[in-house]
Amino acid sequence: MRLSTLPLLAAIVIGAFVSLNVSAEEVQADPVTEAGIVNITWQGVDNYRDVKAVGDIQSRYELRTFETLTKNLNKAASKALKPDQKLLLVVTDLDLAGDVRPTFGASVSDIRVVKDLYPPRMTFSYQILEGDQVIMAGDEKLTDLGFMQTIGVASDRPLRYESKMLADWLQKTVAPKL
């Protein structure tokens, strides 16, 4: 190797290292999803109990999960809140219904087993804004122990248990106080 190529090689290695560090920092940032009148910050995603992908890339699965829950919550919030109100959530824990089980090579990916034993859970703080003013705020720790009895088994909507749990919370806790 010629001595004149050594500084170029060092620059390439340092550049690659720096770009890897930037990518790692970007992935660790708390994702934010927004749909209509709902804005959700997903805080500390790496510490969530269970948002495990089965048959997909983990980061892509998380993003799709967060976007679906935000969109579904927006549908429920549009019915529960007044037109000039907005719902802000900061989710600190999420445990999807079911449990991920390894297939030990029987299939390409793991499987999610949904049983009464593994209910959906979510921990978050929220604010209801009217204009720029906070009119309601609080912390919630939701669990739906009867999730298998409340939704028809034939439904194949993604995240139906978690979405119903959030919609029920809006109807039973938030809407009566507004």
What does this structure look like?
Keywords: Signal. The protein has 178 residues and is of the alpha+beta class. The chain has two domains: 1-30; 31-177, no CATH class. The protein has four helices and seven strands; from the N terminus they run αββαβββββαα. The chain has helices at residues 6-28, 58-80, 147-150, 160-174; strands at 32-35, 38-42, 85-95, 99-101, 111-113, 121-130, 133-143. The strands form two sheets. The protein has a five-stranded mixed β-sheet. A two-stranded antiparallel sheet has the order 4-5. It is globular, with a radius of gyration of 21 Å. Residues 8-26 have low confidence and may be disordered.
Helices and strands in order:
Blueprint: H1 6-28, E1 32-35, E2 38-42, H2 58-80, E3 85-95, E4 99-101, E5 111-113, E6 121-130, E7 133-143, H3 147-150, H4 160-174
Parallel strand pairs: 2-3
Antiparallel strand pairs: 1-2, 3-6, 4-5, 6-7
Keywords:
about 180 residues; 7 strands; alpha+beta; single chain; two-stranded antiparallel ribbon; five-stranded mixed beta sheet
Note the run of SSEs as H and E. HEEHEEEEEHH
How many angstroms separate the termini?
A: 74 Å
Mean pLDDT: 85
Strand order of the largest sheet: 1-2-3-6-7
What is the general shape? Answer: globular
> pLDDT under 50 segments (min length 5)?
8-26
Structural class from helices and strands? alpha+beta
- How much beta, percentage-wise? 25-35%
Helix count? Answer: 4
Rounded to the nearest angstrom, the radius of gyration is 21 Å
Helix content: 25-40%
Query: What is the strand tally?
Result: 7
How many discrete structural domains? 2
Major beta sheet summary = 5 strands, mixed
